[in-house]
Design a protein that fits this description.
This protein is α/β, with parallel strands linked by helices. The protein has one domain (5-154): UDP N-Acetylglucosamine Acyltransferase, domain 1 (3 Solenoid). It has helices at residues 18-21, 24-38, 43-54, and strands spanning 5-8, 57-58, 63-64, 69-70, 78-80, 85-86, 91-92, 95-97, 101-104, 107-109, 114-115, 120-121, 126-127, 132-133, 138-139, 147-150, 155-159. A six-stranded mixed beta sheet has the order 3-6-11-14-16-17. It has a four-stranded parallel beta sheet with strand order 2-5-10-13, with helices on one face. The radius of gyration is 17 Å and the shape is globular. Keywords: Repeat, Transferase.
Length: 173
């Protein structure tokens, strides 16, 4: 099971009770900021907006591609390391509203991670340093450091191969 906090509800489904969980004004502000920033092509400015207005912790030289969707209810629960790439149209969720409960969990993405386009990352998931997530994957559980995963749900494919050392380029001793 992912690391999520569970909150049971009674009566109507949890989504109908959304504004008992989080302020309408916070959601409205986050939707406007998030939607505008999805189309922002300037990586540095985009990261600044996410850090400053949504409270997302984003490391240096990290790139969120166009149309990345960040959670609008609890964006402050997203942490992304340094030099990471989040591919086009990826969704980072920190909440799930179900019929009888809602769940909230942190999304933690390490350093030097590559997440392919059209991926969905569910709440409570950790992706380790230097991991690779194939395009179109649904990440439902933790990804160990250095692993390559893909699919729906994402499954282990192999360990990531290390890049050749830049100190010894090909053809040298």
């Amino acid at each position: 099971m992912r690391r999520t906090e569970r909150f049971p509800v009674e009566g109507s489904n949890a989504l109908w009770q959304l504004y008992r969980t989080v302020s309408f004004w916070k959601v409205l502000r986050n939707v406007v900021i998030g939607e505008l920033n999805r189309y922002n092509p300037h990586l540095g400015f985009k990261n600044w907006v996410y850090r400053t207005f949504l409270g997302i912790r984003i490391g240096d030289k990290t790139a969120l591609a166009l149309k990345v969707v960040v959670d609008v209810l609890f964006p402050e629960r997203i942490r992304i390391g340094n030099n990471t790439i989040i591919g086009y149209n990826t969704t980072l969720l920190t909440h799930e509203y179900l019929v009888e409960e809602y769940r909230i969990g942190d999304v933690e993405i390490g350093n030097h991670v590559m997440i392919g386009a059209n991926t969905t990352i569910l709440p409570g998931v950790r992706i380790g340093d230097r991991a690779v997530v194939g395009a179109g994957s649904v990440v439902t559980k933790d990804v160990p450091a250095g692993a390559f995963v893909a699919g729906n749900p994402a499954r282990f494919i192999r360990w990531r191969e290390e890049e050749p050392s830049l100190s010894n380029p090909p053809g040298t001793c």
